[in-house]
User: What shape does this take?
Amino acid sequence: MSEAEDAKKAAEKFRNCHTRIREEVGKVIVGQHKVIDSVLTALLAGGHVMLEGVPGLGKTMLVRTLGESVDVEFSRIQFTPDMMPADIQGTSVLVEQEGGGHELRFQQGPLVAQLVLADEINRATPKTQSALLEAMQEHQITVGTRTIHLEEPYCVMATQNPIEQEGTYPLPEAQLDRFLFKVLVDYPEVSEYKAILDRTTGTMDTKVHAVSSGPEIVAMREIVRSVPVPDAVQMDAIHLVVGTQPGSKFAPQLVTDNVALGASPRGAQGLILAGKVNALLAGRYSVASEDLRAAAHDVLRHRVIVNFHGQSEGITPDMIVSAVLEHVKPPAK
Assistant: This one.
C-alpha cells in the first residue's frame, strides 16, 4: 500500500471515530454543534478544554455524555472553596484489617481517571488549582513521596461561570495557558428549545452507549500528530500568535494599544494541533491555513490579556483575535 493510500485510510478512520462519538453525544445534547466539535477536537488532539457559559446551558451534561460515549474512566469534581489538594489527588487513610490492627492505605482521588470533569474550576483555591495544574501538564500527581502516572488518554474538561464572581479564584494565566481551547457556550437557538424540553421534561430516556475506547482515542491522537504541516502554514500560525503580542511588526494597532500580554508559543502549538484535526475532518492529510484559522478564537482567546485601557473601551479578546486574523494575511496558495 502506498503512502498516499495509508494517509487516506488514516484520515477515513479518524473521521469515522469522530462521527461515531459526535452522533452519540448528539442523542442527548441538542444543537451546540460548534461546542461539541471543539470538545471532540481537544480530546482527539490531546489537549484540555475550558467551557465557559452561564448556568443551565448543558456544559456538565456535555462532558458527562462524552464520558459515556467513550469507554474511559470518567470522574467529576465539583470544586468548592474549602476543597484541599488531597480531596482531588488522594490521601493515605487508616484502614482496619480483618485479623485486627490497622494499616495505612492510599485511596486515590478523582484526579486519577482518564476524562476528568472539573466543574466550576474557578471556585477552587490556588492551592487546589495547582494540584490540578500538575495533572494537566505532567499527566501525573505527586502525593508526598508517591508519584502516580495517569493513564492515557488523559483529558481535563473544566467549566466556569463568567457572571458570578463572588467567592471565586480566577485562574492564573499560567494555568489558563495549559488549556488547548477556551470555548464559549452560548444560549440555544429558539428552534432548539422544544427538543430540549421534550428530552428533559418528558418520559424520553435516552441511553448513551460507548462507541469508542481509550486505546482508539490514543490511536487517533497518533494519527493527528502524523499529519504534515507545510512550512508556509506553520509560518502563518507563528505570525498569528506573534500578531497578538503588542509592539510586534505583525500586530495591528488595536493589539499594540489594548493588549497587555499576547499569546505564548503554546498558542502556535494549539493552532497547529487544531488545524491537523480540521484537516482530517475535511478529508485532507495536510494542513491548510484555513484549518488553523478556523480554530483561532478557541485557541487564542484565553491567551490574550487585554490591558486596563482596552477593558475601559470594551475591547474583548475575541475582538483582538478577529483583528489579528484580518491583519495577518494567509500565505498565497
